[in-house]
Amino acid sequence: MTSKMPAPALSAATLLPNGFYALTLPPLMRKGKGKVYLAGHDEPLFANPHQLFFRPHDARVPSDLLPADRTVFVYNLPLDTTPAQLKTLFQPAGKVEAVIIGNVGPTTTKEDVDARMATLTDPTTAAPHRPAEVAYVIYKKATALPQLPKIVHAKNWAVKASMPMGLARYKVRFDATHATDHAALEERAKEAVPSVSCMSDDFALQNVLLQMNLNLLSLDGMVIKQLKNWLMRCHACFKTTMDMDKRFCPSCGGATLIRTSYSIEDGVMKLHLKRVFQYRTRGTVYSLPKPKGGREGDQLILREDQKEYQVQRKNFEHHKKKQERKGWDEIMLNAAAASAVARPPTIGFGSKNPNEAKRARK
């Protein structure tokens, strides 16, 4: 006895704390005698619902192709999503002008979008498992955006006109032309699913998460592709060091180290230098002051192996660790402790003229 496939129903849109609306799509159901199998799994998919998320497009992301007052950003789409399905889903809120599948950046042109959409809509060039996680739905009028929470209802989904989203992706039969794509899909299905991931829209935090080798997710689908690393580069001899606490160059000994970003591409380190960088020479146009003896005489720190630098460096590290051990309440209540911030040793004299006579106090 064959079981009938129940009519798939869309749940109402749920507003999440991050501003996205969550929408549950129809599950991949059994239809008649056939069963739907996921590649790499032996059990049929009787009820496997899928959630996608949408919200009005963020105006802070600049793009001439995406008007902020008429665009909806859709994320976590099924892999076989077509522009027609998205148009059917979002049409009840207002007339849809265009549907763009894939990321659109500040440098994306209309020609790029047209070429991409022509490839995705052509059955001879669109692979069954091509990625389509992100899409943009552009309305003709801005009045459609306030109606978004009301569009997801069972009556708005053309069940007879199209199968549940995601079903065609798993029912497709691969032929010889798709053998390579199918093999890649099977390998991807065998990969272990990460149990823990971190979600953040802050690019600085994403950089830290990737350096910790953690799985990264983003609410709007935009994640950094390259890690941003730092090193110290000498402006005098152009040598580099990975020790970020260094104040003096290990090669030439001068206090000319500058923090510089770098990346590694194909095993080769690439420094990211500013093309019109001007080294700050303030304070270096004056001669050094005459040495003074006695207790009041300050010894200028010009090299790392000076005794004065080693003593001040040791005291600085001691006070810094002492402040880290203090509680936040103690620092906030004690004004003296809050003002006594540990400062590193001063190198050189500074930016003023050391040979200029000081003004007498009145």
From TrEMBL:
GO cellular component: a single term: preribosome, small subunit precursor
Family annotation (InterPro entries): NOB1, NOB1_Zf-like_sf, NOB1_Zn-bd, Nucleotide-bd_a/b_plait_sf, RBD_domain_sf, RRM_Rrp7
A GO BP entry: maturation of SSU-rRNA
Molecular function, one GO term: nucleic acid binding
Region (Disordered): 343-362
Domain Nin one binding (NOB1) Zn-ribbon-like, chain residue ranges per copy: 224-294
Gene3D superfamilies recorded: 3.30.70.330, Nin one binding (NOB1), Zn-ribbon-like
Every Rrp7 RRM-like N-terminal domain range: 47-125
Stated name of the protein: 20S-pre-rRNA D-site endonuclease NOB1
Organism the protein comes from: Allomyces macrogynus (strain ATCC 38327) (Allomyces javanicus var. macrogynus)
